[in-house]
Amino acid sequence: MTKHALLSASAAHRWLQCTAAPRMEAKFPDTTSEFAKEGSLAHKIAELKLRSYAIEPISHATYTRRMNKLKKDELYQSEMDGHTETYLDYIKGILLSYKVKPYVAAEKRVDFSQYVPDGFGTADCLIMAPKELHVIDFKYGKGVPVDAANNPQMRLYALGALSAYQFLYQFETVHMHIIQPRINNFSQETLGIEQLTQWAESVVKPKAQEAYSESAGQFHPGDWCRFCRAKAQGKARCEFYAAMVDTAEEKHDPTMITMPELGEYLKKAKQLKAWAEDLQEYGLSCTLQGIHVPGWKCVEGRGSRAFTDTDAAFKALMDNGIDESVLYERVPLTLAKTEKTIGKKLFTELVGDYVEKKPGKPTLAPDSDKRPPMDLTPKAADVFKKIED
Fold first, then answer.
1. Do 239 and 105 lie in a common domain?
2. End-to-end Cα spacing for the chain
């Protein structure tokens, strides 16, 4: 069984803000999802490719056997090949930028307990060259874009790598990379060693000690709650959002809202929506277990109809004069499904010239979103109509 640290690097963005979270989360089972299992498989494929290329000599037969074993997993999808190749290509680019091949480590356990009690984690890839350290993290998920800038998980991995290898390489700079190929998200943060260790001493160390203590810890609800195992049951979060609603109701201003107010209301509405969905999911799970939630009950949703035996049903229809062409539709696969079926590389090679990128529908996003704002300046062609002769 995999051992998990109470103050894990992956949850650092949470316990650095809410120091009471780790002890609260420890009361709940550490469950996993299909998405997490899928990501774990993709990491294993990425690790095999990286080891074969940069770490240890693996014969073609051994590599093929190991890869085929991974591909037999029920969660394997052909697109994993393309995305793990993107990960490997990114690392190749770093390695080839040096005249002498740097030392590479894959799935390396790093210890940062110098700053975080019992703190350890596993870095996907470490590249060590004289005076320069690269910490690379492969993110297979596509639901939430992850940025390397100010990323505490990456910084803790870097601190762990420094603890193990600083004596040998005398690092002066650390480069932290996030590779999230499924959404074409690549980012990097570069820090000097003094800047990184200063952050660890002034920010991480006191927060970690507070979070690790069994008697201390302060609740501080916020956006970081969405991945907390106690996100629905935590009373601090409920009181935080309930107060947000009460504050909005107290104003009783009948006039039109201003643009600054709209901006604030949009932020609150987004957080309140997420909180409401978490509460509803928790409430349903309680009623399904027979726990009474006053004012609420579990009811049967809208049902659907389905054939018990489609082939037999269609045979009966055709035996009674219904033409087969009426019963079946020939529908082409979507572009995304076609690419997924045959593989990104072959898809691009064969039909890339037939693909056009259409602009997406205008979407409201916070200023922190990495996408540039749309150019809404009117074009002359849009304003003036052509005069026909």
1. no
2. 79
